[in-house]
């Protein structure tokens, strides 16, 4: 139950980060892109870890969490850091 709430909150925060309005200042754009890139990577890792924690038990659970963190971080990075 708590994991679902955390997952919902993190997912909402990551989605809201993508709704920022663009700025015309190049320095501000660079900072926003950097923040969005970090937020996507960390958010993806958190969501992946939470999803992985629902799989297996014992050592299998630990491996699933690790794989979820890695895959979620990679996917979040690829989605938010492109271009």
UniProtKB/TrEMBL annotation:
PROSITE patterns: PROKAR_LIPOPROTEIN. This is 17 kDa surface antigen. It comes from Mesorhizobium denitrificans.
């Amino acid at each position: 139950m708590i994991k679902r709430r955390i997952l919902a909150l993190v997912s909402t925060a990551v989605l809201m980060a993508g709704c920022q309005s663009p700025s015309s200042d190049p320095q501000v754009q660079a900072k926003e892109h950097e923040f969005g890139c970090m937020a996507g990577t960390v958010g993806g890792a958190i969501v992946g870890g939470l999803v992985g924690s629902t799989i297996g038990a014992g050592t299998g659970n630990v491996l699933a969490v690790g794989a979820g963190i890695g895959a979620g971080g990679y996917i979040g990075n690829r989605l938010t850091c492109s271009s």
